[in-house]
Structures are given as structure tokens and as C-alpha cells.
Write a structure and sequence with these properties.
Elements: E1 11-16, H1 24-37, E2 42-47, H2 54-57, H3 66-70, H4 76-79, E3 81-82, E4 88-90, H5 104-115, E5 123-128, H6 134-142, E6 145-151, H7 154-169, E7 175-183, H8 186-203, E8 207-215, H9 218-225, H10 230-233, H11 238-251, H12 263-279
Helix pairs in contact: 1-11, 5-12, 6-12, 7-8
């Protein structure tokens, strides 16, 4: 059965951050693994279209990537890599400048490729680029949920706030799930969330939800060196337990219903968002 069957409800989660270097891709990868362990059929899309690194992080070699899909040389199903715990990975093209500056027609082509995806999917996790590029806005606006990763440094907090401000004021996203990363403990993570939430509550009409905190963990660095998710390399590490708790939270979210739960609806929203942005 096609993954686009109306009966198959799909969560689409965009993982983003105001700036690079805050651990967004590590969260995306380990969250995908954690959810796969909970029975979800997960597809992880590397949507940092010019500087993709999910495949590198996992030590995988991709023969083809999204640039081949855009050139009509492959379908999405053709380029899916088999990752840990059975997750599927859609690799981006690394260092190909053109991929980060797609034309409207090329964006439409990428969107249409999703319409023909045959792989069964319960959860699509989109690891976006950092910052507020058009592609980040498109994927975030079209997703069912947006996770913002932030760490306790002024630039990260300021840029996360700016990201939330742009997505809410200019693109109608009103709810954000926040993960505090590389914190000393849960208390520091909560205080970091409270700091961001206080600014948002004062100046923006949005709802922020504290999805969880991931501690700074030496085992996470070791896992990166081994090109493995920390959940696989060091299952008992503090970071691994935190990723599992975040996955548990997401698993408790109600599945999208009706049209909102179809991958086709995500594609349609992406087309609509792309058209609106191109008209500006």
C-alpha cells in the first residue's frame, strides 16, 4: 500500500534552530532512532539542502541524493538510505551551492517527488538548515509540528527567538516545541526554556511547549566520533535517556486526523507555502 493512503496518518516534524552548532542534527538522528524503537516507521529527511550531513554523521555513503531527484535522475524511493533501527534517510547534497538556492520550479519538483513516495511512513522528521532561509520557512510552515533546538548561550537564545518571531508573525506558525540542548541538568534546561518563553509571551502571540532537555554528555561526543547515534553506541548515557524521554512525549501526541494526517497534505501545504513565498 502506498504511504499516501488516507488511512495512514503521518506525523511531519520539522527540527530547526536559529543558529548552527546547537546539536539540531544530532537531535533529529537520535529522535528518529528512538521513535523507530517505539514501533514507528520513520523517514528522516536531511533538508539542509546545500550542506547536508546526516549521512556523514551516521557513516553512510549515498550514491544519489536530492539533487538527483531534482534532475529527474532518481525518485525519492531510489535515494533512501537504510539507517540504524530501520529508519530511512533522504540524503541532501553536501557542498552543492545550487541546492540551497532552488528556483520555484525546482522546489515544486521536489515537492511533487513526495507525492509518488511509496515507502510506508508513520513519522517524517525534517532536519532543516539553521537560520531563516526560505527552505526552513517552507518546511516549518508545512509541518504538523516545529521543534526549536536552543542551548544556553546568548546567540542561540537570540537567534531562536528571531526564528520563532519570523515564523509566527510572517508565516502563521503559532505553536513551537522547545528542546534545551547541552545543558548541565534538567533544572538548567527548564530555566533556559523559561527565559525564551518569557520573551515570547511578552512580545509574540505564540505558545511554547518545553519538550525536554538534553544534557551535555561526553558519550555523545564519542558516539559522533564513531559515526553512530548515541542511543546505539551508549544506550545508558544521560543523553540517550533524554532522547528517549523526548520520543515518549512525541508518541503521546495525538496523530493528525483527516487530510492533515496525510503525507499528501504536507506536500500540498508545501506547494502552497512555496507559491506564497515566491509571490512576495
Amino acid at each position: 500500500m502506498s504511504s499516501l493512503s488516507p488511512a495512514n496518518s503521518v506525523r511531519v516534524i520539522a527540527v530547526t534552530s536559529g543558529k548552527g552548532g546547537v546539536g539540531k542534527t544530532n537531535l533529529s538522528v537520535n529522535l528518529a532512532v528512538a521513535m523507530a524503537r517505539r514501533g514507528e516507521r520513520v523517514l528522516l529527511m536531511d533538508a539542509d539542502l546545500g550542506l547536508g550531513n546526516v549521512d556523514v554523521l551516521l557513516g553512510l555513503k549515498s550514491e544519489k541524493n536530492l539533487s538527483h531527484v531534482l534532475a529527474n535522475q532518481a525518485s525519492l524511493d531510489d535515494i533512501v538510505l537504510e539507517g540504524p533501527e530501520g529508519i530511512g534517510i533522504l540524503p541532501a547534497s553536501s557542498g552543492v551551492k545550487h541546492m540551497a538556492e532552488l528556483s520555484a520550479a525546482e522546489n515544486t519538483g521536489l515537492i511533487q517527488a513526495f507525492s509518488s513516495l511509496q515507502r510506508p511512513v508513520d513519522t517524517l522528521i525534517i532536519d532543516t538548515a539553521a537560520g531563516i532561509a526560505d527552505s526552513v520557512v517552507r518546511f516549518s510552515q508545512a509541518s504538523n509540528a516545529v521543534i526549536v533546538v536552543v542551548c544556553d548561550e546568548p546567540a542561540s537564545i537570540t537567534d531562536a527567538y528571531a526564528m520563532i518571531k519570523v515564523l509566527s508573525r510572517e508565516h502563521g506558525v503559532s505553536r513551537f516545541f522547545v528542546v534545551a540542548n547541552m545543558v548541565r541538568d534538567a533544572g538548567e534546561g527548564r530555566r533556559l526554556f523559561d527565559k525564551l518563553n518569557a520573551a515570547a509571551a511578552r512580545f509574540l502571540d505564540v505558545t511554547l511547549v518545553h519538550l525536554g532537555s538534553v544534557p551535555f554528555d561526553e558519550y555523545l561526543r564519542r558516539a559522533i566520533q564513531r559515526q553512530k547515534p548515541v542511543l546505539q553506541a551508549f544506550g545508558g548515557a544521560r543523553a540517550s535517556l533524554a532522547f528517549g524521554q523526548i520520543a515518549d512525549q512525541i508518541m503521546r501526541w495525538p496523530k493528525p486526523r483527516g487530510a492533515d494526517g496525510r503525507l499528501q497534505f504536507f506536500v500540498e501545504r508545501l506547494v502552497q507555502v512555496t507559491s506564497e513565498l515566491d509571490a512576495l
